[in-house]
Amino acid sequence: MRTLRSLILLLMLVTLPLAPPIRAQSDPDAWTTGRLNLRAGPGTDHPVIGQLEAGTALLLQARSSDFGWLLALSADRVARGWIASGYVTYRPGYAVDRLPVRDDTLDPNAGPLPVEIAPQTEIVEMYGAVDVVRTLAGRIDLDAYPLIPGATATARRLYRQGQAQGRDPRAIAKVGDCNSVGYVFLHPFGEGRYALGDYAALQPVIDQFGASFTMRTQAAHNGMNAAAVLDPLWANPGACQPGESPLACEYRLRNPAFAVIMFGTNDLLALDHVQFDRSLRRVVVETMHAGIVPVLSTFPRHLALPDRSILFNQIVVRVALDYNLPLINLWCALEPLPGHGIAADGFHLSGPLTSAGDFVSAANLETGFPLRNLLTLQALDAVWRGAAGES
How far is C-alpha 213 from the chain's CA centre? Predict the structure, then answer.
């Protein structure tokens, strides 16, 4: 087990961008994760011009400005159209934010795509009938990514977009499950109940966002998962509008510039890995479309489901890579702690021994909630400064 000193040294490492693995030039750009409508334009108001089967290999040509739709060419070069981005997974290292932004409308009666106008790219059918989500996620080494992210190019662009839309630069949203609610996650820093010790440099980020730390979130709840946060049935009728999802409700009420998003603990029990991948992508796309910077986080090990914990965390990293988003690698930070930073129930974060805002006690920082608070503040500090152009 690593010592606390080694862990703290890791926390203080210079932040690095996510470094995806190298891929072969002949790989398709993406694969569908389920049967998917092919539309004439970027939106459900456009007619369906065909369907793609699950596992269809794709070459991507453009995206909509909100990342919700992709202009795709099937690898066999016989189908081309717009597809919903929440139902695809990308090859390792693919940067979807670098696609050109277009809003082309195709002729729904044009028929099959002439082969001569398709890119003459060598296509290697890498997976066939293999589970694409599991295959791509399985390539992720959870220890290969830094604990604290910097501001990616996508984060900077989204921050500018959000400011143009009137997003509050001093507000964040908490999105997640039981590990993101209550009085222990960030809450003490909004009430002045903390001791920074060696981490006094975090005071400016507390000053910036402290008022929003104590706000009750509509997008995090005991038992919530990545599908439920999109479902109006989970919304609080006393705060949310009819038909509004908890996620949309939170974003309307809080008007945040940033959202800290961590799912997985309940998803392991309620969703299969394909459903989790699809739901998390929808959460990300809706956040980006709203002009809010998503800060994703890997989640703690479920002691009764260690293998599924690894797979679902690999999916979280895969999604962060696909959309070029900041990622807090909480999993990697928790693993060397006693009991992996998990309480006796096997899935809640452990601690605190003193208080969730105490960064002075070495023993306290070896428990789950205080360490998550530290990493989250460090990540918010780095992403906020980088996105807003702060020194």
Answer: 20
